[in-house]
Amino acid sequence: MQAPHDALRPARRLLLGAALSLLAGCGSLIPQTVGLRTDWPAGVPRQVELAEVPFFPQDEYQCGPAALAMAMVFSGAKVSPQALVDEVWVPSRRGSLQVEMLAAPRRHGLVSYRLEPRYQDLLREVAAGHPVVVLQDVGMLLPQWHYAVVNGFDYAPGTILLRSGLQPRQEMPFSYFERTWQAGKYWAMVAVPPGQVPATATEERWLDALLGLARGGDIQATVTGYTAALKRWPDSLPAAVGLANQLHARGSLDQAAGVLRAAMRRHPDSVILVNNLAQTLSDQGRNREALAVIRKAGDPQSPFAAEVRATRQLIEERLRTKGG
Length: 324
Description:
This protein is α+β, with helices and mostly antiparallel strands. Helix content is 53%, strand content 14%. Strands 1, 4, 5, 6, 7, 8 and 9 form a seven-stranded antiparallel beta sheet that branches. Strands 2-3 form a two-stranded antiparallel ribbon. A hairpin with a 4-residue loop joins β6 (145-154) and β7.
């Protein structure tokens, strides 16, 4: 006869297998949280809290203006949730759409940067001193969309810290936060001064963010943003062109020419740099020098050939009528 404890061994194995399957199932629901427990991002401290982030309790359905105001005021903007209501609040939706949330900071001289949908990127930005605005679904049965601000975390207990709703310091487990954040496809953004490139920014995404700022017409803020881009990515041709264009628009032609000449040393074959430098020199009245520069852009197969011809014709016409 089999002993009782031997009879229980298959059942125990079944229970253990079921438990492991359950854990695996939970891991598939919160994959990024599981990843954090085994692969904490290098260089990120285990505990951070940005206690200086202001807190604005939200009015009914107006979590968007409140969350955005917290991030923007922390970055130096002089705004209030009430002032932002007209900028981001959509009455028919009883809420704020992401596009409005990204657009509003640009009107106040800040850069809106949308994060990649990664837990690690969120933690890196908070560790770098940037509170992160996140979109969550906090509904129990039906979707209930909500904006909050992540201003800290603590690895040991696995806790995310938020300014949320009426709570100035909400503690939420990593796993539960991911479930609420995952529903909005891990949407997150920071609103930073143009001179502070986010810790997780890529060159392409930062320059895209600066284009949004430039469309708002704040030339000085955009100049600062492109200057910061060149400091982070010194070989960036688009950043150099963008900075020179903004300096030109501001009337700082000497500075624009200096940026273009420095970029040409790094990119001697760039037709667009040659064209823009010639244009800038001509706009300064230095047409003979400009003509000598534009002659270096003689490739008829260049995608900028039409622009080069137009610039050369302009310079030659100015030489005939104005000299220089």
